[in-house]
Amino acid sequence: MAIAKAERLMNLALCLLGTRRPLSKRELRESIEAYLEAGSDDSFNRMFERDKDDLRELGLVIATVENLDGEVGYLARRDSNRLPPITLDAEEAAALGLAAKVWQQARLAGAASGALQKLRAAGLPEDVDPYEAHGALEPRIPVHEAAFEPLMLACRDRRPVLFDYRKATAAHPEPRHVEPWALECWRGHWYLAGWDRDRGAERVFRLSRITGKVRSRGTGFTAPVPDVVTVRETVASWAGEIADRSALIRLRSGSGYPLRAKATAVRELGDGWDELEIPYGHGLDAWLVEFGPDVMVLEPAELRADVVDRLRAVAKG
Questions:
Q1: Three-state DSSP string of 193-216
Q2: Model pTM?
């Protein structure tokens, strides 16, 4: 039925765009097969009014004109339904082309390729090739999580979702009912920021910890959606990018170079170990766990306890 309606809307749009004079309901009914199959005039009138409203909601400007005999006609003037030409300078076109290159992965590669073709039609210089393989930088945003696409659509459409989420300190996943705000990528990992309805507070979820399918649940948000900057700050904080304290750790020599790059002080202890002072913010415990036996937390005690809890959860499977 969805295909039939889409075909009917397309036929109506073509009729309204292709005519040079207003067409009456009678003429439109005789021109579109789906309208001819309507059981009665009332059925046709209801169908036509719904279709006309749907086309207007999609952005088609439909004019209503009354002729000398008082009969109402409809048409979609081409000058009212034509977008202005898009012009891009070389820097803008290159930036957009680079953005299209980023999304070269299974789900979004087709859309990115189509967008690039439109950029070329809009004036992307031929000597600017965002897909060339010999560039110094090779930007990629990998998306391997199955939850990415349904969450991206839910963020776009403002639809609450339900999914099972396994915290790093938990052995089993728990259901979470979330109003999704935005997806952000930090340190190669994707995070969802949104409003957790069960907890009545904003939360950030790492997509790799979502298990099973993402299901839509109801319509409409109950909490206000913050602006993009605030969402990014929230994700940065939960992902461990914002630090307000320091932590002291012991790190095996010759390992943990990302930790060494963030260290504010390093002291050699001997016997194959170094002592590092690193910035401590939310999410540091999850990051330290990734280094396994090469890291030992000395202080603060709460960070040490969080890391131990996470390791125990991993050991339990």
A1: EEEECCCCEEEEEEHHHEEEEEEE
A2: 0.49
